[in-house]
Amino acid sequence: MNVKTIVVFCLFISFLFSCKSEEHTVEIPQIIPVPNEVTINDGYFVLDNSVGIFYDDTFKISGDFLKNFIQEGSDIKLDDTDDIQFILDQTIENTEGYKLEIQPYKITIRAKTDRGAFYAVQTLRQLLPPEFEDNRLSKKKVSIQCMTITDAPQFNYRGMHLDVGRHLFSVDFIKKYIDALAMLKMNTFHWHLTEDQGWRIEIKKYPKLQEVAAYRNETLIGHYSDQPHQFDGKRYGGFYTQNEIKDVVAYAQSRHVTVIPEIELPGHAQAAISAYPNLGCTGEQVDVVTKWGVFEHIYCSKDETFDFLEDVLDEVIELFPSEYIHIGGDEAPETKWKTCKQCQNRIETEGLKDEHELQNYFITRIEKYLNTKGKQIIGWDEILEGGLAPNATVMSWRGTEGAVEAAKQKHNVVMTPTSHCYFDYYQSTNSDEPTAIGGYLPLEKVYRFNPIPSELNEEEAKYILGAQGNIWTEYMPTEDQVEYMAFPRILAMSEVVWSKNENKDYSDFTKRVEHFNKRLDVLDVNYANHLYEISGELISEDHKTEYELTTTLDDKTIRFTLDSSQPNLESQICTQPIPVENSKTIKAAVFDTEKQLGSIFTETINYHKAVGKTVTINKEPSPVYSGSGAQGLINGISGSDTRYGDKEWLGFWGEDLEITIDLGEETEINSIETRFYNGTGQWIYAPKLVEFGFSSHGIDSKVEIQNSEETIVDIIIKADVNTRNIYLRFHNYGIIPDGKQGAGQKAWTFIDEIIIN
To answer: For the chain, how far is it from start to end, CA to CA, in angstroms?
Structure first.
């Protein structure tokens, strides 16, 4: 923000300040995403039946939206005078930028395009009472604080994704989802329409896609990690007709949202192959998949397959006016290709080295076809394997390496790494959270995401178009669950892609979220509310160990207990870190002056012999799964059984680990315990071998880890030794073999607390 804005916000940030007006108080704008520049001025604009609105066809979408929003949300009727006026301003550099000026007798919206004006309208919308959202306003006039807002987005691509292949959602819900994107100034809806578990778009030339591929015989019950797998025995499915698709696309256009369809290839294609077995390598009849994961039946590279895909894409192109068609390209096991005569013949005749280059051939051939139709492709970062198609845009999901590689090759990139953008991950450590795929992605981590990788220089960074949040729906069978997983993380993502980094402040953001939730209530959005949760951290300094409790909202109070009782309004207030000299259970909650807010926070500290000592690791954990750092391995706190991304788990990709614990003095050791996450559906595998020792030369003994179906693999090493140092070596699982999730990829190792007794 500019200096004038900062001064104003410092004056008003946490309270309402009296104004010269006798009837009003100055209200701080609680806008999400936060604008670039806001200057608050004296006075108010009164919105009532005496007000008119004027705009020409240049601003038809934005003008109509504002007029309808006011008139349908209240009893206020607008005439054709220019009290609210839209003005074309060619001096505004950004085509999505705007200037909103609210004066006592006029509101002026200046923009270079209707899209920019539309975002000004969304800002003005948030300055109006939430009751406008559902025609609940009982007042006949509304006062709006006078202010000037100058704003423009940081990134051109601001998106959200929705998977309808695993679970199908109504057209009405899709429109509601698009409404949310528009309200938050996001401009792209990535619609994931085809999967192994269901084909969701009508293709008239191939009716079996609707008759066969759109339905599965049953669906997995519980989590994929639960063994043995159980199924509900109920046929499930459906698809969107082409008329419904056209309706959704037109609706999105009326909100300046571009819909990008995804037609997965060459992998995630078993549903299509179930309808037309000739598209696969074996020609055998297969069923639409009934559980989650990655499957070996992918499109064969024969001409017959390309004819089918070109026919499908021809119909898709007619439905979607977007510049991009998303072609997937991810998680395509090459097992069938390796034994397929036609695929091997393709490799030979095209002079390809191997199946990786066959993947590139597949993607490039589809790209060339789409280019002839005036379309560009976008695909997941696996399309980099074997060489990148000439004009492709990369959607980087497996971290940031793919983004860096693509940008350095001067290819456009959309950032959507699992670590910060996968909204199917758990967002809280509460035990009563709905079942999710795994991982841990709290609101703050989304908010702190920077889409531009640090490895890129200024010129290379220009290829980062923006970012998007992804919602994969394996564990979201209902629309309510989709909303719960999307909100409020979508609010954080909107600020990541719109707002300038220097304007972002997480504490301020949470206050605005608390205010924004009132609007979501009126909109009947089922959001998760974790604003009143507590974070805890063990701190060891100067031979003293303490546990610090914090909460984001600084106008609330933390109360706690140490006797296993539930905290209440009479419990001790936490004003400083809690001393930790032995094992204990801390329970705490956030309170205002009248009641408890949010859920009970519980932390059990296992005060073992390594707590507060020194630990070193030969490798840095992945920057996106670095938890509490190396010291978190001996802080007395164990990670979640399901949220491998929480701050107590450390993640390493494809690396052997050597860990040394220095106890500071000779200490009697009886046992060493640790555990590994074994989420094979997420490419996470327990190590194959653990080595340990106590002498100065390091390793003395080893323990082999057998293949396990358990999600958590515990290791207990018995010992009877006096030692100062403990040496541990963990051997990574290696390259994931064929037939397993993530085949051909390096395995992740996730390690939790190392307990020394």
So the answer is: 53
Long-range contact pairs involving 452-457 (C-beta distance under 8 Å, separation at least 24): 453/400, 453/403, 453/404, 453/407, 455/400, 455/404, 456/404, 456/407, 456/408
Helix (H) or strand (E) segment spanning residue 4: helix 3-12
The mean pLDDT of the chain is 92
Distance (Å, whole) CA 168 – CA 236: 9
Inter-residue contact 396 to 420 (CB < 8 Å): no
Q: Specify the 3-state DSSP secondary structure of 627.
A: coil
Token code pair at residue 718: 């018995």
> In the numeric block, which tokens belong to residue 456?
């890129």
Average pLDDT over residues 447-455: 96
The pLDDT of residue 206 is 98
529 neighbors 521 (Cβ within 8 angstroms): no
**Spatial separation of the C-alpha atoms in residues 510 and 519, rounded to whole Å:** 15
pLDDT band at 343 (very low <50, low <70, confident <90, very high): very high
Q: Which DSSP letter does residue 666 get? A: E
Give one DSSP letter per residue of 139-153, joined into a string.
Answer: -S-EEEEEEEEEE--
For residue 109, CA distances in Å to 23, 78, 115, 146, 422 come to 26, 16, 12, 13, 35
Q: Give strand pairing partners of 615.
A: 661
Tokens of residue 256, six digits:
């300046």
* Whether the Cβ atoms of residue 588 and residue 567 lie closer than 8 Å to each other: yes
Residue 692's CB is within 10 A of a number of other CB atoms, namely 20
* Nearest Cα residue to 750 out of 707, 686, 680: 686
C-alpha distances in Å from residue 608, one per residue of 139, 250, 495, 539, 582: 62, 62, 42, 15, 8
Question: Exposed, middle or buried, 698 (CB in 10 Å: 0-12/13-18/19+)?
Answer: middle
Q: What domains, with CATH codes, occur in the chain? A: 3-151 (3.30.379.10), 157-522 (3.20.20.80), 535-604 (2.60.40), 614-756 (2.60.120.260)
HSE at residue 709, side-chain half, CA atoms within 13 A, is 7
Burial class (CB in 10 A: 0-12, 13-18, 19+), 730: buried
Kindly state the percentage of the chain with pLDDT values over 70. 96
Label residue 67 exposed, middle or buried (CB < 10 Å: 0-12, 13-18, 19+).
Answer: middle
The Cα 326–Cα 709 span in angstroms is: 35
664: enclosing H helix or E strand: strand 657-677
Provide the token pair at 692.
């340990």
- The structure tokens 């000004």 sit at 120
Please choose, from the candidates 132, 72, 79, 82, the residue with its C-alpha nearest in 3D space to the C-alpha of residue 103: 82
Q: How large is the C-alpha radius of gyration of the chain? A: 28
DSSP state at residue 688: S
User: pTM for this structure?
Assistant: 0.88
Tell me the average pLDDT across 459-488. Answer: 98
- 225 within 8 A of 681, measured Cβ to Cβ: yes
Q: Which of 183, 326, 164 has its CA nearest to residue 257?
A: 183
DSSP per position, 87-102: EE-TT--STT-EEEEE
Going by C-alpha positions, the residue among 161, 183, 654, 622 that lies closest to residue 415 is 161
Residue 7: the pLDDT is 35
State the maximum Cα–Cα separation within the chain, in Å, rounded to a whole number: 88
Checking if the pLDDT of 454 tops 70, the result is yes
Residue type, 548: E
Q: Return the residue matching tokens 């179930």.
A: 274
pLDDT interval class at 5 (50, 70, 90): very low
Best CA proximity match to 633, nearest among 475, 719, 750 = 750
State the DSSP string of 359-374.
HHHHHHHHHHHHHHTT
Position of tokens 């793919």? 402
Strand partners, 677: 712
Q: Give me the residues paired with residue 730 across strands.
A: 657, 690
